[in-house]
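I hope you will forgive my troubling you with a question about protein structure. Here, with my thanks, is the record as I have it:
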Amino acid sequence: MLRTILILLVLSSISFSSLNAFAQTEFDSQEIGLPMPMITMSPTSGGPGTEVEISVTGMPSIPEEHDPRIEFFIYMPFLESIGGNVPQTCGGDYCFALYSFDDVGANKFAPKTISFTLFSTTNPKPTVEAGGWNSVCDLKINGVTTERYGNTCIDQDQPLGDYEIKFGWGIQTSELYDVRETLTFTVTEKEFVEEDRELDEDELAMKQYEEGLISESEFEKRLADLGYDAQKIRQAKALIGKLEHQEGFKTPLKGPIAIQGTDYELTYTITGGVLTQVSPDPEAGSLIINVDSISNGTLFIQLPRDVIDAKFGEEDDDFFVLIDGLETPFDESKTVNERTLTIPFPAGTEEIEVIGTIVVPEFHTITLLILMVSVVSVIVISKTKSGLNLKI
């Protein structure tokens, strides 16, 4: 009997220890035999707009006995420095798994190349591709985009200073992280590249006119002296945004606009273009917004819930927004009575479609009622006249 009790105690202790083998309160990845790869970064300093590449190669195999939640992390500090609302996952730091627990469990440690560009107001403007905003700042791993930054890429310059990029091991869904290596990138003053060649006479005239250094009449005279006719002078003005209708695009345009075929109006503000028409598509549950844009811009539009809404049962659902047929990201704020959308759009946009689940019909209820009363009145009068004619 005593022997049986001793055996049971031993078995229970083994079972308990195996269940708690990974319930660490401290995590020393080196002590448990987790290795480190070779990590290089190029360059190690540069101004806003610098392209950066980090290579992670040669990760050795890890011991077979390990917590199945272990992952290899990288911490990227650049977005946090400009006040981005980023997830905090590594003990208060923003990080992501470079090798997931699945990779670690299978000992799959293929080389990784991480590439991105520092934020800068002189970066190329983001473009819309495949329904998403693409920018040079987007974080890519082996050429595949894993984090998109959109207009954040060009909103401001990366602040100067030293940035610590950290690498290490961590345990998923825990507060246990062990930073093993830190690379420092120094953001320096922005460099401005001077023109390597002299401007042609027409280019110089366009540059001076755009910057307000010469008058319109002087600009037209100089181009005419170079052989430009009226059409080419107008085209030159269009290139630098100096046509009369283009000048208006530089400041926000505001106002209500009527929804075609209804008694409703929408309040909006737009930059980079002109809002020309709004019409409902009851079958699609959407509003079609036509714009005339010549530059990147933003549409802020208030949508009363009795005009268009997106519902799943009694709960609010998400709108879909298409720019020229491609799904695009947008921001939204809500009240009980309306939903306000902030929709960035690229130059050349012609149509923005907001798709919900319900939209105002082509004719407002009151308008339809008046129309029905008018039709009935005509019918009654016609019958009355017909009856009188028969009696005569």
Notes: Helices lie at 2-19, 101-105, 152-155, 201-210, 216-225, 230-239, 244-247, 365-391. The longest strand covers residues 286-304. The radius of gyration is 32 Å. The chain has a mean pLDDT of 78.
